[in-house]
From TrEMBL:
This is UDP-N-acetylmuramate dehydrogenase. Its main location: cytoplasm. It comes from Selaginella moellendorffii (Spikemoss). GO terms for cellular component: cytosol. One of its GO terms (biological process) is cell wall organization. The keyword Thylakoid does not apply.
């Protein structure tokens, strides 16, 4: 999942080909010497990293710069470096809910590998943004805590799940989310607390999506409750997902948000207008679940965007419903 794309200056608008030579960040700009602490802690920037390698869709051109961060210090330093040198940046998790442009991204992609987990044994988990969300769902349910059983079928990271307020099977991330630590575009660490009303979320929306100075999500704290059936529920949810969704295909999960109460699901609407199996280039509407667009091999972002446009037009023409994208398109 992507968190947001930020333009450091002017003000911002969270995610091979080319020269892949690895260089320390200090060598990227001859006019600067950013402080990253000791040499061992300095993150390495890579030129020309293919974004198709970072996306569950397997689509996307090369990033101008790419860096992996494994702790708070590396994340803060990378964001500050981008801001100081007028580089737009994209904080990225697993790339499971985004579509990269065929040309790539003319900025710096910061990939979170912050996967620390701290737990108190009483259902409270503080988890790094780069921790796999599906593994968190499995881990917590194995320990007998309920609330994240649905997460075991979502192929993203904790940061992406928080950003999108991911949900399934009647559960949502916000229901068990207590606090979120994040880094702003100035490199300052801040925190939002649920108990203070700062984490108001709705269906697939969170306050981070409209936050102009969000740099990247750092940690999320969840409070779960004991549930003797949590492991069974987690297994049931995952088994049902495998039966009804193309989990072995290259996709980005559900492409469209469900319209809401009183309406059919987005997948049902797409199926009702006869678009299952429709193909444009290498992109195809899944025949198993119509709200999934799959890369059958060699698909381009332009193929997916064309398919999305056709689906929106057909559903609107025949049902009067305007579908809204859940997947985020990341422009060049």
């Amino acid at each position: 999942m992507a968190v947001n794309a930020r333009q450091s200056a002017p003000p911002p608008t969270f995610l091979g080909a080319g020269d892949k030579t690895r260089k320390k960040v200090g060598s990227l700009c001859s006019s600067c010497s950013p402080s990253f602490g000791s040499e061992d802690q300095a993150p390495e920037f890579v030129r020309g990293k293919l974004l198709s390698e970072l996306s569950t869709w397997g689509i996307g051109g090369a990033a101008r710069l790419f860096v992996e961060v494994r702790n708070r210090e590396q994340l803060v330093s990378s964001i500050r470096h981008c801001r100081e040198h007028n580089l737009k940046f994209l904080a990225l998790g697993k790339g499971s809910n985004c579509l990269f442009d065929d040309r790539g991204f003319d900025g710096c992609v910061i990939l979170s590998r912050i996967n620390d987990m701290h737990e108190n044994g009483c259902g409270r988990y503080r988890v790094g943004s780069g921790y796999p969300f599906n593994l968190l769902g499995i881990h917590t349910s194995k320990q007998g805590f309920g609330g994240l059983e649905f997460a075991s079928g979502i192929p993203g990271t904790v940061g992406g799940a928080v950003f999108m307020n991911a949900g399934a099977d009647g559960q949502e991330t916000i229901e068990v989310l207590e606090a979120v630590e994040f880094v702003d575009t100035n490199g300052q660490t801040r925190e939002l607390l649920k108990k203070q009303g700062e984490l108001a979320c709705s269906y697939r929306k969170s306050p981070f999506q409209g936050m102009p100075d969000l740099g990247a999500i750092l940690f999320a704290t969840f409070q779960l409750q004991p549930c003797p059936l949590s492991r069974d529920r987690q297994r049931d949810y995952l088994a049902r997902r495998k039966q009804t969704q193309p989990v072995n295909e290259r996709s980005a999960g559900c492409v469209f948000r469900n319209p809401g109460k009183g309406c059919q699901s987005a997948g049902a609407l797409i199926e009702a207008v006869g678009l299952k199996g429709l193909r444009i280039g290498g992109a195809k509407v899944s025949e198993l679940h119509a709200n999934f667009l799959i890369n059958t091999g060699g698909a381009k972002a332009s193929d997916v965007l064309s398919l999305i446009s056709v689906i929106k037009d057909r559903v609107r023409a025949e049902s009067g419903i305007q579908l809204e994208q859940e997947v985020r398109y990341i422009p060049y």
